DNA sequence: ACTCGAACGAGAGCACCGCTCTCGTCGAGA
DNA sequence: TCTCGACGAGAGCGGTGCTCTCGTTCGAGT
């Protein structure tokens, strides 16, 4: 059971993180100032260091929270009773919607890493949640016979254990070629969202919604989902 | 003809930009310090402002130079005499190689935009070079009958004029569905490179070279290139 | 119940940053 | 030759991350 001191410490820690998240949403990660956060919560800047050893640690907290937030949004959007194609497009839309609602947080998660900053191991589980949802859709589709597989096999040394475990595990309809296509679809999804968010498609795409719908359908075809 | 004064001014401008590029390669964009650049070229920091009105203008110069550099690399890698599939994979590899050789520059170009920074119009032509090469490959393939098109048509309001002009123009084998797939392949290419560079694929992909080769082949299939 | 040490908040200070202003110099065109 | 603009240097302003020191306060062990 936590003592009173630990409780108020935890409260203050989340209060600082919340203020930091508000500032992140306003000015972005690179302009996030620990001193301004301290001002917002009414502390001396030096006092914040009792709770976060450095600005990078504060950012790490925001990164983990961000991965958890987009992971939760994606999980909530995945209706496991729906057919794979619909689940796939729902998950894609959830990613895009979350990114558009939280552009600075998205940039912090999937944009250029802050220079000199290396993600601690703590971020890995939270960061995996989106990929795990995709893997679950893939696995369910394979079990339901809704996945067009090559029926090939493993290509040793190509993929890591994490990818194999998440993507289909040992199901015969999911070989390494399918896994590569799934990773490609995942990368393409985030590439598309990033391009839209970072303005790389300005002048080329007029109707972002329609374009994105076509892209998700194309990616579903690539992964191998097929209608019942 | 430029006066001596203009000449030495231009020289000093590029010398500052070169020093900034060196520092960019070392510490990244967010940590790029105008004062440090000034120290490297042996000036007072205030003197640099005679050549670049602000740090953002210096970054803009680096961005334009970066787009030109990756554009030149891609153009050099495109052998117009080769079959479309080979040209496509060569261009993809050129993008990846340039990105791995200049990670901080790549992050500056295709990562999160520096907060508060909006790309001036000057950057657009340089930024378009890579896309133009892709469009040229697509158009050549269509003219040579090496492109599997839907034979559909335009979808008004979906794509911008820039995309239509660069991607296939009016060739019947290139309709808007093909253009969407080309844009998707373009986004997927940069999504893949970004994920590799920013560490999002750590643990999932062991052999980056083989994975990338498979990805480019898959994307070529997606775009519709077919062997002779 | 008391004590002692750890946790805490505040303040001053260091080195650095982007940027502005002023001032002396120097050189090219009128 | 004179003049005015371009130039470089320096000081300075407000901001940053981070450290150190100093009282205070609170809680756990005796």
TrEMBL record, chains A, B:
Domain of life from the UniProt record: Bacteria
InterPro entries: Homeodomain-like_sf, HTH-type_TetR-like_transc_reg, HTH_TetR, MT1864/Rv1816-like_C, Tet_transcr_reg_TetR-rel_C_sf
Keyword Transcription regulation: yes
PROSITE patterns xrefs: HTH_TETR_2
A GO MF label: transcription cis-regulatory region binding
Keyword tags: DNA-binding, Transcription, Transcription regulation
DNA-binding region boundaries: 33-52
Keyword 4Fe-4S: no
Residue ranges occupied by any HTH tetR-type domain in the UniProt entry: 10-70
Protein's UniProt name: Transcriptional regulator, TetR family
Originating organism: Geodermatophilus obscurus
